[in-house]
Structures are given as structure tokens and as C-alpha cells.
């Protein structure tokens, strides 16, 4: 080999063919499965005890299944839903459900909970402790117990009429003349604590400097509440309204104990109407169709609130 000539290295021998390297797609899929493994028991339980029963109820809603006197059920399509929308009792239950929800949840619990939370911000510690204990005690009481207490309060010989007689004011049988207002007030009395806790936590998150600056600028209490407090807790308001509305739509025990939907059907909301059709009249298919419509109503409320919650503060 001459000087200055570069040596040519012989080509390397070919490597033996081995197993193909895993594709990035398969690797990502494997990682996703491994990440989903810890939550798989919860997903299985949700499918078995939530999605499964909902799917079965959705099927029953399209049949004429009954509790008694029927060997086999048959598929009837949308007949149950058509019957519901032509049933005056169902339409009355829809109207009363909306009235009950608006009065006790959107207006009552929401407004009273916010007012209590705002007042407790400025109250002394003993007052906060006392008021919080009273309101939360009403919330943690079982629904049936709360129903009996409010029945004793509103009945003809109850506490409310005794107070009115002592004040020389006219009394009446509230559970007979104004049953939907009585059960709405009962639900407000029982459920306000949740709204109060939500708004108390939200108000504590407002920086003190902002409120103090508004005070220095001469803003009064109502102006601070409208222009500063409410906009800053808007997301908490939306969350509270959504949870309260869904809970109120499904209230059954409180109304059942106080009025059983009566007198007549003057306080019969959709849960009570569904119970009457399914278990008292044994029309499981029709009652389940009503329950499915109630689920749709709750879903529509949820979609509205979720859309409101997307808006940034």
C-alpha cells in the first residue's frame, strides 16, 4: 500500500434477522392499557351497577311489562311515551316538578344559602358556630325524619298555625290548600346547608384586598355583592345550581311523608307519579318510561349548567 492512500475497510457482514421492533402505535396502545389498569375495577363496577341497570330500564320502557297478571311482556315501541304526553296526570306532574324545582332549588336553597354564607362572613365566631350547627343538622337528618318534622309543622294542628293563632293571624290547613308550597319550603329547610357550605368556601377564596379596595372607592354592600362577589363566584354558583337541581328533581321521601302527592295530585311530582304507575298500578313499563323522561329532564338541566360553567370568569 502506497503512502497517502487510505485503506478501504471491508463492508460489515449482515446482521442476522431478529424480531421486528414494536411499532410506536403498539407501544402507545400498551402504555394506555397499563395506565387504564388501575381504574378498570371502578369501570367494571360502573358498567354492572349503573350502565347495566340504566340500559335494562331503557329496554323496559319500550315494553308493556306489569307486576301482576302477565306471563310475558311484549315490545310496544313508543306507546308508553305517547300515552305519557297524552296523560293529564303526567303533564300535571311535569308542571309541579318544575314549580317544586324552581321554588325550592333555584330560588330557595340557592338564594338562602348565599345569604347565610355572606352574613356568616361578618358574624362573630359563636354566631357562625350556632347557625352552622342548626343548618347542617337539618341537612344530615334522614329524609323521612325531616318529612315528619315538617308535617308536624304544617299540619292543621301544627306549630305554624299555633304561632299564627298566638299572633292573632288567620291560619289554614297548609298541606291541603298550598301543598306544593309547603313541600317546597320543607325542601328549602332541609337542603340549604349544602348551598351555604359551597358559597362559604367560594367567598373565602375572594382576595380581601379586592373587597377592601371597593370599600375605599365608596362601593356599598349591594354594589360589592353585584359587581365583585357574584362575578368572582360565578362558577361556584353554576356548580351549586346543577347539583341542587339534580337532587331536587329526584326528591321522593320528603313529599311522600308529608302529602303522598295529595290532596288529589296537587303535590304529585314526577318521582311520585312514577312510583304510583309502577308499583301501585303495577304498570312497570309505563312507570319506567316516566323515569326515563325524568332522566332526560335531568340531563337537559346538566347540559345547560355545563355550558354555563365553560364560560371563563
The gist of it:
This protein is an all-alpha fold.
Beta content comes to under 5%
How helical, in percent, are the residues?
A: over 70%
Quaternary arrangement of the chains shown? single chain
SSE class? mainly alpha
Q: Could you tell me the number of beta strands?
A: 0
What order do the SSEs take from the amino end to the carboxyl end, as H and E? HHHHHHHHHHHHHHH
The radius of gyration computed from the alpha-carbon positions, rounded to a whole number of angstroms, is 30 Å
Mean pLDDT across the residues is: 83
Shape: flat
Straight-line distance between termini: 81 Å
Low-confidence stretches: none
The biggest beta sheet reads:
none
Total DSSP helices: 15
Write up what this structure looks like.
- This protein has 313 residues and is mainly alpha-helical.
- It is built from 15 helices and no strands.
- It has helices at residues 24-36, 40-60, 79-85, 88-122, 125-140, 143-154, 159-166, 174-177, 179-204, 208-216, 221-232, 234-249, 253-258, 270-280, 284-310.
- The radius of gyration is 30 Å and the shape is flat.
- It starts with 23 loop residues before the first helix and ends with a helix.
- The mean pLDDT is 83.
Secondary structure layout:
Elements: H1 24-36, H2 40-60, H3 79-85, H4 88-122, H5 125-140, H6 143-154, H7 159-166, H8 174-177, H9 179-204, H10 208-216, H11 221-232, H12 234-249, H13 253-258, H14 270-280, H15 284-310
Helix pairs in contact: 3-15, 4-9, 4-12, 5-9, 6-9, 9-12, 10-11, 12-15, 14-15
